[in-house]
Amino acid sequence: xxxxxxxxxxxxxxxxxxxxxxxxxxxxxxxxxxxxxxxxxxxxxxxxxxxxxxxxxxxxxxxxxxxxxxxxxxxxxxxxxxxxxxxxxxxxxxxxxxxxxxxxxxxxxxxxxxxxxxxxxxxxxxxxxxxxxxxxxxxxxxxxxxxxxxxxx
Length: 153
Description:
The protein contains one helix and seven strands; from the N terminus they run αβββββββ. By secondary structure, it is mostly beta strands. The strands form two sheets. It has a five-stranded antiparallel sheet. The longest helix is centred in the N-terminal third of the chain and has 8 residues, at 15-22.
């Protein structure tokens, strides 16, 4: 267990999400009955109440639904990365699904609501020397950047 509150990548409800990120896939639970993608991983589909959910990779393209620029670190490990942008990303494959993530590779001044975004996979950026136990690997997560012709997946 790490000293800094990091995501539990081994929790059965979210483990496939983090396993997908390590191999460059945005994986979400998808309902076999209605084909809707679901997030946060439910026990039953949010749309049709089916319990037949399977993890599937999706394109990772979406749009900027909402964001905030964080200029002041609220805990010490975040001091190394301020300012940073946290956002809600509305996914193209299921606009009802909105992921909380980081916006990267874009100055905050260039962000626009509904701008097209594409997923990238990177380690969480705020590890300082005391954040991890020896031998503990950084946690890779989906982050988003502006979609350009060269970044389409």
